[in-house]
Amino acid sequence: MIADPLTLSSEVVALHIAKLTPRQLEIIGHIASGQSDKSTSLILSIKRGTVRKHVQHALERTGADNRIQLIVMFTIWKTESVRSAKGLYTHSSNSVQI
């Protein structure tokens, strides 16, 4: 269980997110962008129950207590991934290009 994902470093979040399968990441991405289980299932051509199972397994693998924590962790991970891809890092709340 994770008390508050906002208190975790981006490295720790990345370790938790690394436990997810590509399909789980895809589904969490849809949910994080505001899609419902039903719309995610329609987009991915899978059953709504399958979406729910993937989310449940993602919760178990990451230790998140609920979808909100899972989405926060995913968002932190995604933000850090974008920064890394752009060659940016954050230090004392200043973005610095390397």
Describe this structure in words.
The chain has 98 residues and is mainly alpha-helical. It is 62% helix and 8% strand. It contains 5 helices and 2 strands; from the N terminus they run H-H-H-H-H-E-E. A two-stranded antiparallel sheet has the order 1-2. A hairpin with a 2-residue loop joins strand 1 and strand 2. Helix 1 packs across helix 5 (67-85). It is globular. The relative contact order is 0.17.
Summarize the structure.
This protein has 98 residues and is mainly alpha-helical. It is built from 5 helices and 2 strands.
Spell out the key features of this protein.
two-stranded antiparallel sheet; mainly alpha
Question: Topology, please?
Answer:
Elements: H1 10-17, H2 22-32, H3 37-44, H4 48-62, H5 67-85, E1 88-91, E2 94-97
Antiparallel strand pairs: 1-2
Q: What is the ordering of alpha helices and beta strands?
A: HHHHHEE
For the terminal residues, how far apart are their CA atoms?
A: 35 Å
Helix content: 55-70%
Q: Write down the overall mean pLDDT.
A: 84
Described by strand count, sense and barrel closure, the largest sheet is: 2 strands, antiparallel
Overall shape: globular
- In DSSP terms (H or I, runs of 4 or more residues), the helix count works out at 5
What strand line-up does the widest sheet have?
A: 1-2
**What proportion of the residues form beta strands (DSSP E)?**
5-15%
Point out poorly predicted stretches. 90-98
SS-derived structural category: mainly alpha
Give a count of the beta strands, DSSP E runs of length 2 or more. Answer: 2
Cα gyration radius (Å): 14 Å
